[in-house]
Amino acid sequence: MTHATEAEKAWARVRASLRESAGARLFEQWLKPIELIPGEDRDTIRLALPSAFMTNWVRNHYADRLVLEFKQILPNVRTVQIETRVPGRAPVMLAIEPVADSAVVEPAAPKPVVEAKPVAEPKPAAQPAQVVMKFGVDPSLKPAPAPVVAAAPVGVPAERPPLDPRYTFARFVVDPSNKVAFNAAKVLAEPGPVRFSPLFLHSGTGQGKTHLMHAIGHAFLEHNPHAIVLCMSAERFMYDFVAAMRARDTHAFKQRLRGADLLLIDDLQFIAGKDATQEEFFHTVNEIMAAGKRLVISADRCPQALEGVEARIVSRMAVGLVADIKAPDLTLRRTILDRKLVDLPDMRVPTDVLDLLAARIHANIRELEGALNRVVAYAQLTGDTIDLDFAVATLGEVLRGAQKRVTIDEIQKLVSAHFELKPLDLISARRARAVARPRQIAMYLAKRLTTRSLPEIGRKFGGRDHSTVIHAVRKIEELRDSDRDIDAAVRVLMRELEG
């Protein structure tokens, strides 16, 4: 049986599995259009979609899942390529390897890791240089010579790890909440003696840890094209180690990891309570650090807060540099959305919609980008124009789940205090501009920040009709584009209301 025939049968089984797990609606919209591209390469499965946007969505949400599904049927498969094939145009490849941390709606399957060939321990340079631990020295580790990047045969670069091409330093939005982590990551990726190792990055989910880890990998490979870089989750580390023990081939596992010039381990918290895995992880960390190589580890909390992780591992993590990434504030969230729009040049997303997303979705960056992707996708699928009402209708559940429960009473109190009025003024019949404009702003905020209907909002403002609320919302939207004072006041009020 040819590989092409095997791939077709495997694809039929994978499609059936995706149809069952994804549900009819999601499958019909996103997964059914996928086509298998015939080929004889046993290591690679090529899939195609009819548009770049659909390709990007499938890649973000299902790259890892597709690799896992195919590997269960065809163990030789190592890569799933997801391409765009528009009739009459050459194919555009958007993904070559599965990504390590994409915006997934459903729980991600264990991430596949590209195997690296074992290499011999690097020999010391002719003039060894002591490794400087700028942020702390572990007295139990002896100074080691500067690492020699293991070279592949001339003209044959080492196998590339599954690094997301979007996750580079150039695409990372820097602000005070992540500046230390960003600068530390850039320093670690630079050529020359290792200034500190390991670099331990910690933050909540979706704050940019994985982005920085992949950026380190990209930058390091740019400086050292033949370097051996391994990138995996701690869960994958555990899975591969258990598989090696069952196969009685732990030597090859150890040699592969310890031969890396740069080792990237994501989500360390997943090995908590796994004693055998922690034992091997500890020795791997020791070997990497003693050889003066680069090690980057991430987790959802600082080393000292990792419950179920051995004290000696925590101690090793604290030897290098520990950098945290704080939750993004409103300004950073808004900037990230602007950067994301660069990837969607054909879509026009109004400013008020971007403001809504940045204001309401503050749990993590991944959810923020996912919300924007959803709005754009629904607009493309329905042909509707993106506006504030369309975004609220599309993201109703997301917005309700993410928002702080703001009440109309709170809005009235804050607006009246801001404009030095009494709350009763906002519900009175007074029409003087000094009262009418703050009332319109309060109605606008009630529409933006609460789930109340237009008639309900009107009743809370002195029994006014819903058409009055519509007029107020449209008026403030117009003024925000032309009047800087009004726009500034609205921004301040929104920031205070959302905490």
Helix content: 40-55%
Name the poorly predicted regions: 89-159
Cα-to-Cα separation, first versus last residue: 63 Å
Work out the oligomeric state of the chains in this entry: single chain
Main sheet: strands, sense, barrel: 5 strands, parallel
What percent strand?
A: 5-15%
| Overall average pLDDT | 80
Shape: globular
Number of strands: 9
Class per helix and strand makeup: alpha/beta
Element string (H = helix, E = strand): HHEEHEEHEHEHHEHEHEHHHHHHHHHHH
Lateral arrangement of strands in the main beta sheet: 6-7-8-5-9
Q: Roughly how many Å is the radius of gyration?
A: 27 Å
Number of helices: 20
Describe the fold and architecture.
Strand 3 (79-84) and strand 4 (92-95) form a beta hairpin. The chain has 499 residues and is of the alpha/beta class. The protein is built from 20 helices and nine strands. It has a five-stranded parallel sheet, sandwiched between helices. The longest helix has 22 residues, at 52-73. Helices cover 50% and strands 9% of the residues.
Write the layout of secondary structure elements.
Elements: H1 3-22, H2 24-31, E1 35-37, E2 44-49, H3 52-73, E3 79-84, E4 92-95, H4 179-189, E5 199-202, H5 209-223, E6 229-233, H6 234-246, H7 250-258, E7 262-266, H8 275-290, E8 294-299, H9 311-319, E9 321-324, H10 330-341, H11 351-360, H12 365-382, H13 388-394, H14 396-402, H15 408-418, H16 423-427, H17 433-449, H18 454-460, H19 466-482, H20 484-497
Parallel strand pairs: 2-3, 5-8, 5-9, 6-7, 7-8
Antiparallel strand pairs: 1-2, 3-4
